[in-house]
Design a protein that fits this description.
CATH topology: TIM Barrel
Strand order of the largest sheet: 6-5-4-3-2-1-9-8-7
CATH superfamily: Glycosidases
Number of strands: 11
Number of helices: 9
Helix content: 25-40%
Shape: globular
Number of domains: 1
Radius of gyration: 37 Å
Domain GH26: 1-334
CATH architecture: Alpha-Beta Barrel
Signal peptide: 1-26
Protein name: GH26 domain-containing protein
Keywords: Glycosidase, Hydrolase, Signal
Structural class: alpha/beta
GO biological process, one term: substituted mannan metabolic process
Length: 345
Amino acid sequence: MIKWKFLNCICIFAAAIFILWVGCNEQPVDTEKADGSDSIASIEAPSNSQATLEEPTTESIVTESSVVESEYYPITEGQRYLGVYVQGPEETDVLADSINTLAWFDRFDQTSDYKISLCLDDNKYIAFITLQPTDWDLKLVSDGYYDDLIIEYFKKLSSDNRANTELFVRLAHEMEMRPSYKSGWYSWQTDDAHAYVNAWVHIVNLGREYAPNVKWVWSPNRADEYTTKYYPGDEYVDYVGLTLNNTLDSRESFQQFYENEGQRDYLEAYNKPIIFGEIAEHSTSDEVRNEYIQSVFDYLGTYDKCIGFIFLNQDLESARQYKFTDCELILDTFIENARDYICAK
C-alpha cells in the first residue's frame, strides 16, 4: 500500500514538472483579428527608461546636396535696361528677345499676376511696373485708409523667392499740374503738391517694409519749375525719369525734344540715375517715326546718366498712335539697335 502511494506521488510530481516545462517553452500565439486587422499590444515603458528616437523619414533627412540657395537678381550698376509696355506677354514674341525689361500698367486693386510671375518667378525679364493709385484720395492714402490693399500688393511682389528679385516701380507718374493744363488726365494729378508728396512717402515706407526688392522711380510728365515741388526727397526716390511721348508729328529728334525748355538740366539736378519710363512717337509718316526711334538710340546710347528706357507700344486713341511693332521698317530698326544698346557697357 505504501509502495503504491509512493509511486502515485512520484507521478504527480513528474506531471507538475512537465506542465511547468511546457509553459516556459510555449511559442507566442498569432493574435490576428477576425476582420483581418492586426491587434497591436500596448507596452508601457518603464518610468526610468529613456525616450526612444524615431528613425528619420526621407522627408526629414536634409543633406548638403538638398539645400539649394535661392539666386539673387539685383538691378546692377552698369547694366542697361530696355523695355516695352505690353498688354499681353505674347506681344514680346515679335521683339525676338531684343529686350531685357517687361513693362506694364498696374493698379493696387487690379494686378497683372501673370506678368509678375513671368518676371519674379521665371526671371525672364526685369519688371518695370507703372503703379497707379486710380481714384484714390491722396489725403486718405497718407492717413492709411488704403493700407490693406497696398500691403497685399507689395506682398505679391516679395513673397517667397520673389524677394530675391529687384524690380522698378514707377509710382503715380505725371502727377504735376501746370498753367497750360486745362485739367489733369489722372486722378492723382493735383495742384496740392504737399498731398502728393505725403501719399508718395507713405506708400514708399510701406513698400520698404513689405517689398524691399522694389526700386522707386519718380517720373513727372516734364522736368521744369512746375515739377520740383512734387519731388518727395532723395530718401524716397531711387531713380528719376520722364514721360517723353512726342506728338508733334515733326522731324524733331529725341535730343531736341528732351533738351527743349531745359528738361535735361532740371532732371539731372536731382542727382539720381535716370530711367525714362515712357517714350513714344506719333506721326502719320512711318519714315518720320523710324527716324525718331533711331534718334532715341543714338542719343541715349551715349548718355551715361541714363540706365535705361521704356517704349510705349500701343495706340492710346485715334489721334495718338504709338504702336510700332506693326510696322516692319520700325520694328527692324528697334531690334537692331536694342541688342547693341543692352550689350554696350
